[in-house]
């Protein structure tokens, strides 16, 4: 991997963090509590949570990038099928990618998008677990 890179990984981690709040009716106050913030007004039944990276100080061509502009993650949740559909985006440093990077040991999976792995890493069988969908009934991965 490159010595330093900021990557984005579309992860539905909120589905894990807030899964106990889902039943027939989603208790959005419990979801807000789980995230430690209220959802932004998006419209309809979509609830969007922002996670700006205030720990990053990035300058591009002499222009300081504001955390809320391009250095933040977000997750949007929408009630669906007795639970919630989630989509989002996370901004990760290279050192933060390893918790979601794993080597596929058994089975197969397809990454829906790849914003972080190099071609040689994919050829070696690595996937980003937050972007991969199993193609087989079971998969086995090994985290490094």
The share of residues in helices is 10-25%
Beta-strand percentage? Answer: 35-45%
Molecular shape: flat
Return Rg in Å: 17 Å
| Oligomer kind | single chain
Overall SS class: alpha+beta
In whole angstroms, the N-to-C terminal distance is: 14 Å
**Biggest sheet: strand arrangement:** 1-7-6-3-2
Total helix count? 5
Whole-number count of domains: 1
| Contiguous runs where pLDDT drops below 50 for at least 5 residues | 1-23
Global mean pLDDT: 77
Largest sheet: 5 strands, antiparallel
> Quick one: how many beta strands?
12
Walk me through this protein's architecture.
The chain has helices at about 15, 30-35, 65-70, 95, 120-125; strands spanning about 5-10, 40-45, 45-50, 60, 65, 70-80, 85-95, 100-105, 110, 125-130, 130-135, 140-144. It has one domain (about 5-144). The protein is flat and about 40 Å long. The chain is of the alpha+beta class and about 140 residues long. The longest helix has 8 residues, at about 30-35. A five-stranded antiparallel beta sheet has the order 1-7-6-3-2. A three-stranded antiparallel beta sheet has the order 10-8-12. A two-stranded antiparallel ribbon has the order 4-5.
